[in-house]
Amino acid sequence: MTGIGFVGLGNMGGPMASNLLKAGHTLRVFDIVEALVRPLAESGATPAASAADAVRGVDVLISMLPASRHVEALYLEEDASGRSLLDQVDRKTLVIDCSTIAPASARRVAEAAHTRGVTMLDAPVSGGTAGAANATLTFIVGGEAAALERARPVLNAMGANVFHAGASGAGQVAKICNNMLLAVHMTGTAEALALGVANGLDPGALSEIMKRSSGGNWSLERYNPYPGVMDGVPASRDYQGGFLVDLMIKDLGLAMEAAEATGSATPMGSLARSLYRLLERQHDAGRLDFSSIQKLFGRQS
Ligand code: NAD
User: Distance (Å, rounded) from C-alpha 177 to C-alpha 37?
Assistant: First the structure.
């Protein structure tokens, strides 16, 4: 049993924290939205009054926040007494940030932790909200191998796969490559489904055909974007919940920054980012799931 502090209880963090409780770990939980703390407190977690309160006496601290600026603010910003959260973390506490953020931000925060004698991993996840709920996430870890071994029992309670991508920030690099590819195949899947429907096909039948043909991909198999084709996915509940368009635009921005920094050609990723921006503006879709890219391809029967 490990004492764990968990900060950020949103679409991903909430179910991840819940799985840690189910695995028998003790939790101190915090989110700036109090309503997200309550269900975990009712399941046995200790509600913390602040992030600093959440780290008190824990072996492991996990954060699951939206973007780089939130993670940098959480760990590096000083409070009224002039101390950052990292200043208040015990040196024995292993810090694991699971948010998807810029590799440079991950390195900056890990370096700040290192100078205080605190070990930190970047461990962004793949697998979506269903993976978070079912404890089948994939963790993509950057940092020291020995620290990853310490983290492994805790990560195993929330996921099915743990990969070591390399040094600090490497987990984030692998994650943004993955999400760029996800945006590309989700967009292509939505485009193909709309083409089939416009030409008289049933979207469910077409999905079955493509799943077992060379167009098969994760979006078709697990996250069909066409409303009514698959149960339990955001497309079948008006694109509510899931992985927000705003977060996908953020991740594609991170991929473009990484491409710019290395002179890499990413024409597909760049087009996917433009399409997601268009979706956000034309359909006010920032808070919808990213499979709502289907809306860009016209009327859905
Ligand atoms: P979310 O917006 O639902 O949750 C983020 C939570 O962080 C919110 O509840 C917010 O109130 C809280 N928060 C923000 N600042 C805080 C602070 N200073 N202290 C405490 N809490 C704070 O986002 P999410 O969907 O859970 O995603 C979290 C991260 O995981 C993002 O980086 C996202 O890119 C990544 N991710 C999401 C998915 C997905 O399917 N949703 C999949 C893989 C990775």
Answer: 32
